């Protein structure tokens, strides 16, 4: 989940611009997998504020990854959520959906709309979303509080149904691809867009009928749920695993 290499596009994860509602531009549909959390869109932090490895010193005296310096909603997410272990089925499904909706957009957009997403998707309870029909798709397409993209909405529903078919649950499947802990990256250039594990996860999920789960989106999910720790070396947030 870093806005790291925003130019990386994973085949098969594009969002057709024609499926986006007015005001919800797909912006090319790149599988950016959280591209504004570590590189290109650094939350407004001034370049001159960057320290060793790109860390930014906040007004509270703490060194943070540059994307987590500002605005406040980014700082809160950086400090208390990103890279923290999440392993409940509904919780990881929510992150999977949000990362897919973020594809081609800014993560800041998704964070600002997150509560509306939760309301619209019944708290991302897998069993609830799996039962959605055409009326729910129409309802969500009319909801200005979320990203109104038909392909992504239908993917969220399809992914809920696919998750119900997993014998051991979604979280166990996803966490089976978590790599061994490794040193934190020294700088933004050391944060990958995808890894062998995320590519394997993506391939497995697609085989099981999941959509919008390219390798970069899969890696962003791994970052968001604590499967990997890509806080930069020197960032004040303590390791979670």
Describe this structure in words.
39% of the residues lie in helices and 2% in strands. It has 241 residues and is mostly helical. The chain has one domain (31-224): Hypothetical protein, domain 2 (Endonuclease III, domain 1, Orthogonal Bundle). A two-stranded antiparallel ribbon has the order 1-2.
| Alpha plus pi helix count | 9
Dominant shape? globular
Number of strands: 2
Counting helices, strands and paired strands, the structural category is mainly alpha
Average pLDDT confidence is 84
CATH architecture classification name: Orthogonal Bundle
End-to-end distance: 17 Å
Question: What is the CATH top level name?
Answer: Mainly Alpha
List unreliable stretches of 5+ residues.
1-35, 38-48
% residues in beta strands? under 5%
Summarize the structure.
With 241 residues, this protein is an all-alpha fold.
Tags for this entry?
single chain; 241 residues; mainly alpha; Endonuclease III, domain 1; two-stranded antiparallel ribbon; disordered N terminus
Draw up the topology in text.
Blueprint lengths: L55 E2 L5 E2 L7 H9 L8 H14 L4 H14 L5 H5 L3 H8 L8 H15 L5 H6 L20 H12 L7 H10 L17
């Amino acid at each position: 989940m870093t806005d790291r290499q925003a130019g990386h596009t994973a085949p098969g994860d594009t969002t057709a611009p024609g499926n986006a509602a007015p005001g919800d531009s797909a912006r090319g549909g790149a599988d950016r997998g959280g591209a504004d959390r570590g590189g290109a869109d650094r939350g407004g932090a001034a370049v001159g504020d960057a320290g060793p490895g790109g860390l930014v010193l906040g007004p509270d005296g703490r060194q943070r990854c540059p994307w987590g310096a500002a605005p406040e909603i980014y700082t809160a997410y950086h400090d208390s959520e990103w890279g923290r272990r999440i392993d409940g089925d509904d919780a990881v499904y929510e992150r999977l959906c949000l990362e897919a909706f973020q594809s081609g957009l800014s993560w800041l957009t998704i964070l600002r709309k997150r509560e509306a997403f939760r309301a619209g998707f019944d708290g991302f309870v897998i069993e609830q979303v799996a039962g959605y029909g055409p009326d729910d798709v129409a309802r969500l397409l009319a909801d200005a509080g979320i990203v109104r993209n038909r392909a992504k909405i239908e993917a969220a529903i399809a992914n809920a149904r696919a998750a119900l078919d997993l014998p051991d649950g979604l979280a166990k499947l996803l966490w089976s691809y978590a790599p061994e802990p490794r040193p934190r990256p020294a700088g933004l250039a050391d944060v990958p867009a995808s890894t062998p594990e995320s590519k394997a996860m993506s391939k497995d999920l697609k085989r099981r009928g999941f959509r919008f789960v390219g390798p970069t989106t899969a890696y962003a999910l791994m970052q968001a749920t604590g499967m990997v720790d890509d806080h930069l070396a020197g960032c004040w947030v303590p390791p979670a695993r």
